Request: fold
Amino acid sequence: MRGLALALFVLAALPALAVEPGEMLADPALEARARAISQDLRCLVCQNQSIDDSGADLAHDLRVLVRERLAAGDSDAEVLAYVVARYGDYVLLDPPFQASTWALWLGPFGLLGVAGFGVAHYVRRQARRPDPAPAPLSAAETERLRRVLNGPESA
Amino acid sequence: MIAELGHFSLVLALLTAIVQATVPLWGAWRGDAGLIGIAPFAAAAQFLFVALAFFALMHAYVVSDFSVVNVFENSHSLKPILYKLSGLWGNHEGSLILWVLILTLFGLAVAFGGGNLPPAFRARALAVQGMISVGFLAFSLATSNPFLRLDPAPLEGRDLNPLLQDPGLAFHPPALYLGYVGFSMAFSFAIAALIEGRVDAAWARWVRPWTLAAWCALTLGIAMGSWWAYYELGWGGWWFWDPVENASFMPWLAGTALLHSAIVVEKRSALKSWTILLAIITFALSLMGTFLVRSGVLTSVHAFATDPARGVFILGLLVVAIGGSLLLYGVRAPALKAEGLFAPISREAGMVLNNLLLATACGGVLIGTLYPLFLDAVGGGTVSVGPPYFERVFVPLMVPLLLAMAAAPLLPWKRGDLRGLGQRLGVVAAAALALALFTWARMSDASPLPACGVALAAWVSGSVLLELGQRLKLFTVPFGESLSRARHLPRAAWGMTLAHLGVAVFVAGVTASTAWRIEAIQLMRPGDTVTVAGYDLTFESEGEVAGPNYMARRGTFTVRRNGDIVTLLYPEKRFYPSQQTSTTEAAIHTTWLADLYAVLGDPAEGGAWSTRVYYNPLVPWIWLGCLAMVAGGAVSLTDRRHRVGAPVRRRAAQPAAAE
Reply:
């Protein structure tokens, strides 16, 4: 019985139990800030999880670190800067706007701008064009129409 | 023996696919009816061979034949039968066979269900299907053969990842694949149309049901996946912008755009070449979705394949398929002439805006998903692109989309006027605004964003109902006449109403569950009570239970509201010895307006357990909304014009094609 509990405790590879009760700060405002910061920090040993969602040991350590800095009076930006200084930009799930990420941040909006301009140009240009006359009937169609109108005997 | 039959059958399928990919194309080129006539039979034979292979593999799973490597690696004799079956597609090799099975099933449907397609066109479309098949079967046989044997055979299998042993996830891959493969039909039709050099209303009408069916399946598949994440991962999140999720979401965005632009081609003969391009892009993204997940480029729960030989094969396949079709497009598309013209304020323009925003959103997701790979490849360092990025890019694009979505169905084709639209939508706008202000005051949020989300949901649903009311002439004619109008309304109109309402419900669910969720994390001893959103949860006891292939610790919570017992919740923490992993099984009580979500965490000192309880308002609406979208698509599929089929194109009568 205790053996299983121990096994669960030790071997839990994916407990997905993020923030533990023991880690949480007593001050709800400070804790809320810690949660918000945690959601923007990557758990470096996990696959695409924030430290707020991850049950990994490293995530636990980082959560505690974030709370220690907050308790010591750091601002949110100072906490992030402290973590980045230790782990690099890779730890930020919200990539900073810098030379290496210009294309990342501007790409979608550039795409929207270029596509939007092209589309607006196309729509306005084609709207100004006169309605094309319907394609003239082919010989076979004229023949069919004549039959319909005049009856088959007049063919 | 049966596994070898399956293997042999797969080889035969490849040979048949090669015939299907070449002979009908040659026949259509030469105008040889005999060669064209081979296409349906090749499609049927190929389906038969792939089905044989599929069932041979399934047999190995059912009888737990661990001499087959694939079964050994992904199954276990104690596993419930459902997960033995789903284990087949819970891995790379097996899922490829499922992919091809669905592909050939669709081919069969075109061969014998598409009776109204001109034989030459059908032969070309089937040939393109055959080419896709050749690629997949060659990939499977060369690098990912599921029928390889082990000697000596092990006594027991390694089992499937316990996270995947779940009813929601058992059907998630087949639904996704139905969607991906369904888009291959739109692709094949687009390529066939490019080869023939003509796209007309009849073409759009053939393509639409396939696209619609694929879209429904993909929507359902994505919804199932996110629902699974919600109840299985143990903290109530339902979408993580994980690369694997994005891989299925991009074809969905492009497919949604395609669905709408195909309407314009069908009704107004405009946007032809764009629609063809969208069909190509959608399938290209489906291919990428299939392979990104498999190639090991993106590592995540889904990325079972991490073999570089496969990566190179996949890359080659993608380059040939996407590059080839884009090349063909570049050569042929300029010949496609738009006939229907429209004013900047018209329903067509609304669809164009829809396409612009969906395509940009899709591009944004693509950039965000691939950027870390790209930056790493060019030596620019490592970067993480997480949910904050996607939310900041995606949400601003969706707001105008939702605003326009309300307006476009109310605009006439060809030419509309803004003033008339404003008069009709004024009431809806006022109501949405009032609701937003009420919500903001009531919830006393710091940010106005949740109120904006509510307003958008109200705006969309209000306009959808307004549009329906106008179609039925509700309150302007006697009720009986409205009823009769309702009966005669095309199913496609009902489908759109339902699907757009689904979007509104979805938006409401996302907004409320994101903005107003309540969380309580604490240590509890038996007898302790925690209060969340007016519910008192008492932790009664904790005990051990045994499952078929796992052991679990199960907590019992009594939920009371104002002293009355509402329900009992039994969250579990399961341990799977075969894989030495544990999973959390959240216990959920839903009122359809909110979920009460309880999770049992780890034991702590002194008999206490860490527990977490969430109150998630409107979270069921997220999946109700998705279901409404799927239902809308399904209703639209039964529309009369799809049942009676497209008008027959008379080649002889229209020699002046677009070439």
In short: The first helix of chain A runs from residue 2 to 11. Chain A touches chain B through 60 residues (CB under 8 Å). Confidence is low (pLDDT under 50) at residues 1-16 of chain A.
